[in-house]
Amino acid sequence: MLEITNTRMNHLIDPSLHIWGWEIPVYLFAGGMVAGMMLILGFFFFKGREKEVDCVCTNLPLLSIIILSLGMFALFLDLEYKLHVFRFYTTFIITSPMSWGSWILILVYPVLAVSLLLRLPKFVSKLIPKLEQYSNKLKSNRKLVKSVGILNMVLGASLGIYTGVLLSTFQARPLWNSPILALLFLVSGLSVSAAFVHMIAKSVYERELLAKADNAFLVTELFVIFLFIIGMVTSTKIHQDAIALFLGGQYTAVFWIFVVLMGIIIPLIIQSLAISHKIKHTPLAPIFVIIGGLILRFVIVSAGQYSSWY
Amino acid sequence: MIAPLFKFGYFGDEFSLIIAVLIGIGFGFFLERAGFGSSTKLAAQFYFYDMTVLKVMFTAIVTAMVGLLYFGWLGILDLTLVSVNQTYLVSQIVGGLILGVGFVIGGYCPGTSVVACATGKKDAMVFVLGVLFGIFVFGELYSYIFEPIMDLSAMGRVLLPDVLHLSYGLVVFLVVVMAIGAFILAEYVEKKLVLKKGK
Amino acid sequence: MDQSLINDKPTKYMNPYLAGIGLGLVLLASFVVMGRGLGASGAFSTLIAAGTNIVSPEHAKSNAYFSEYLGLNLSETLKDWLLFEVIGVVIGGFVSGLFAGRIKLKTDKGPNISNGKRYLFAFIGGGLMGVGAKIARGCTSGQALTGGASLAFGSWVFMMMVFAGGYMFAYFIRRQWR
Asked: What is the pLDDT averaged over residues B149-159?
């Protein structure tokens, strides 16, 4: 025993994992958020809202492209061999979520580009007037628009599931080693994106709809967190030790206060009052949800690396 | 004896921070309910036409004080483990006077300014900047000006019963009587000023 | 634009004695659960100490006052009981204001004073309050309320001095409020 502990002082004895900093949480956050935005965008296209003047679908494709690119850039910064990035695309390993993810991401961009074409923002059509013609041609085919909507929803869901599954397939980190974590990231991504779109939407119908949807997602998120913790507590000793980080360990305060209380419960109260027209819709609740979602990913990624099998 | 729960090790440091937020929520909630998120209401205390500050503060002190006595008497709470502010007469007199002047000029105290910020008062946000600036100046000048007076007349843990040579229970009773007297006086003064205004 | 968050008219304030009892019970809960009272100014000190430490670590560590507030690292410094309590105060005040219909971006002042002057006075008053609270080792929450309830001799002296200072100076500043 003494020998084991002694030799472990040498840092190359144990198989060590690369320590993740801010890049991975930001990437997961961006991925989850864009996934939710694509679901919303797809739903609006499917419902034929692209004909409405004040539909938020004018802004969503471009914003999704920007946010996803920022997230991918963060991921790129985390790569040790940046020049080898193309290797993600020279192979496809069916059991690797990273492989799935890189291919989903490749498909997301063209679909978002077509969506952008469907509802051209004014400054784009001024820049390249020719695009207007294509846009009109596309729009005239209702079935095509519907298909783009479905494509958005399918890819959004895949992206959301992928960002969740990515961590839970890590066998070496007991805290991440739970299928419920994938669900938690998916629901959190949905709540963050619903909050964000609620914040930027101009149409009253869309704002009300998204506030309601966001509240549903937030309640679901609370329930999933409950399941996540119960699942961990009733699992093996190693998992119990991992979840103890949130139940008295060093991530307790930040998790319960900033993620659960300020990121979920407080915005839930504010949005419930807003839906029942007691107060106005303000960016306040969405900002809390977005920050809470970001902190959730930081906490899970950081605490996961703190938990280990030893 | 099982309380204070924290000092008997029922939960750790991390959990105590969650307790801190919950207690803070209660604190902020009642401060706002009482109207302490408004500087005009707070400052009115110093012009006698709205004595809410005195009423709320003394009711709160009496409630907590009687509660402490009761839980101590029940044998649930170990009063010697409840931290009590040490007495440093000079610094408390000087600090209290400066604070009082700051209160009537600024219209808030640190706790109430936080509540006022949360309800959107712009003057409270400026006030908080002022408090932060004041603390920064204090810290920077600490060893030059303030350090010498900080520990003058340090008396340690001294309670009112020790000073008055009366029993703890009797002092609690006297404070309650004094508070009730203050409430009657406050109601009287408020009514008088309202009548004057009415004329 | 109307800067109120609330659609309805604000409700009346709570009866002061009831609010006082509520406040007292919160304070009592703090005594029973934590063995300590409430506070506010300590949280500001932590923020200033942490801020100074970020800008210039050597300067903060050599300062006899700020160094007491510093932990091993930033996260240890910020894991301060009073700071978290004040985060709670923000939430509690906001939620109460939300339900009472009192959340509104505005400047609270007397009728005979401009906004600019009110801000100036608020800053000066805040500055004095900061210095005074640090000299007295606590403000109205940490000294008067908490120390008052635990019958600390110095806190009662402090409380009387706050009222004395306020009433003495009130005359000179009456234009601001009336």
From this structure: 87
